[in-house]
Amino acid sequence: MQWTMDSNSNGSEMDALEAKNVQHSHHSDSQFHNPSGPISRYSISSEAPIRASLEFNMEDLLRYPLDQAPYEVDHAASDSSTESDSKKRAEMDSQCMLVCCQIASELESYIHADIKSLRIILDIAKKGSDRVNDAMTLQQGSQTPRCMAMFVVVLYQIIQILESGCSCLSDLANQKSTVSTQINGMVPGLSLGGFGMEPEEQVFYRSQLVRKAIQQVSELLLKMKKLSGIGESGSNMNANTPEEREKCFADLESRLKKLINMVSANK
């Protein structure tokens, strides 16, 4: 009787335990098959896709690297900028050459005309110097040898015109002296008072005008010497030494000094 009760008790306990295990098994299966439910940490099949996705071949990776475009420096902008600067430089050089050729042609026509009027000579020299100065501004960045050669030609022409003016100044001084002596002998006591100008004063005034024109040419020569020290690329480096460049303008400087001496002798 007691054994039967114990047997029934043990049976009930085993039935309860078995029911609990079955319930736990259904609960685990529902968690595994439910996509929205949590995955059991004891499930081996859940790690299979992750492990498979991490498998790769190192040789294939090295043989076929990631498709990334190499970094390339775009030289199109810099090349176009350099080409544009070169084109502008060539246009300015051509413009400078055309201006210098026109100035040289006009000055040569005046030299050929052999003008004897000091006023006209000084006006020609001043206008020619001003135009050459404007042309030199086109060569400030970098100088071109053919433009520099034209500057030298024009300066030689202006100096020759001024030399002709100094000759006119000497002749004018001699004529004024002779005429003044004759007039003073014929009409004594006749004068214009403070408003008159003696022949010597006229010669001095005109000599000052000539000296001013010579000074303007000297400044152009100094400016041209500075330009000769600038290379064609715009740098301050040049193959010639300063002594060699000075020799190129030695004759121009010598003729300017002679002009100054001629003007000083006519005072």
From TrEMBL:
Region feature (Disordered): 1-40
Biased composition (Polar residues): 1-12
Name of this protein: Aflatoxin regulatory protein domain-containing protein
UniProt source species: Delitschia confertaspora ATCC 74209
Domain of life, source organism: Eukaryota
